[in-house]
Amino acid sequence: MLDNINIKWLGHASFKIKSSSAVIYIDPFSINESEPADIIVITHGHFDHFSPEDISKIAKQNTVIVATPDCASKISGKGILKKISAGQNISIGEIKIEAVPAYNSNKSFHPKENSWIGVIITADGKRIYHAGDTDFISEMERIDNIDMALLPVSGTYVMTAEEAAMAANIIMPKVAVPMHYGSIVGTEKDAARFKELCRCRVEIMER
Predict the structure, then answer these.
(1) Model confidence at 22, in pLDDT bands (50, 70, 90)?
(2) I need a surface site. Which of 12, 38, 69, 90 has the fewest CB within 10 A?
(3) Which residues have C-beta within 8 Å of that of residue 103, sequence separation ≥ 6?
(4) pLDDT digits (tens, 9 = 90+) for 159-192
(5) Cα separation of 52 and 42, whole Å?
(6) pLDDT in tens, 31-75
């Protein structure tokens, strides 16, 4: 909960954000939700972030699906498609979506040249940063005024808990939430280690 915004972790890197004006899903994957989406955001094309099956569970005819170009080319069916790349902003009603870079700096799973993204979603005056699949990168130093940061902590494909804590301590959100653990890769120990190292408030959400 972030004031009057309800934020629910759906497992791995999936979240549902309910503001006063919209129901927003980010990277729905293996979800049990059935509440229709007003907006769906897809950060990149890996199967655990871009799942057409899960999109179809929650998309309606007027759902706006915001996705990177590589994903957008593979989406069909219900929804209004909008492409987004790092550095671009999209406004949908009262919701603003800002795409920021997300990539690996010391591994090859998420190359910078793929132009995959994290997003900053502004809803009801609150700024929520979903980092996508990323390492601790220099662009994070320019991310500020964040109310809640959703950061991957599992290592292997993304930041380790230690690196994610470094990112949180640079961004200094009002609250940081660990993600990208507990199913495909990473454990609750990664979330606990992240919390131990952060200088900001940390909330470990229950799925």
Answers:
(1) very high
(2) 69
(3) 110, 111, 112, 114, 116, 134, 135, 137
(4) 999 999 999 999 999 999 999 999 898 999 999 9
(5) 10
(6) 999 999 999 999 999 999 999 999 999 999 999 999 999 999 899
Q: Which domain holds residue 168?
A: 6-197
Residue 42: closest CA among 145, 130, 111: 130
72, 162 Cβ separation under 8 angstroms: no
Distance CA 73, CA 207 (A): 31
Within a domain: 49: yes
* 1 belongs to a structural domain: no
Please tell me the pTM assigned to this model. Answer: 0.96
User: Do 113 and 44 form a contact (C-beta atoms < 8 A)?
Assistant: no
What token pair was written down for 169? 């301590």
* Residue 191: CB atoms within 10 Å: 23
Q: Confirm whether 203 is domain-assigned.
A: no
Q: What is the CATH number of the domain that holds 68?
A: 3.60.15.10
CB atoms within 10 A of CB 187: 13
Q: Are 95 and 121 contacting, i.e. CB atoms less than 8 angstroms apart?
A: yes
How far apart are alpha carbons 49 and 51 in whole angstroms?
6
Q: CA-CA distance, 105 to 109, in Å (whole number)?
A: 10
Give how many domains the chain has, as a whole number. Answer: 1
95 touches 66 (CB < 8 A): no
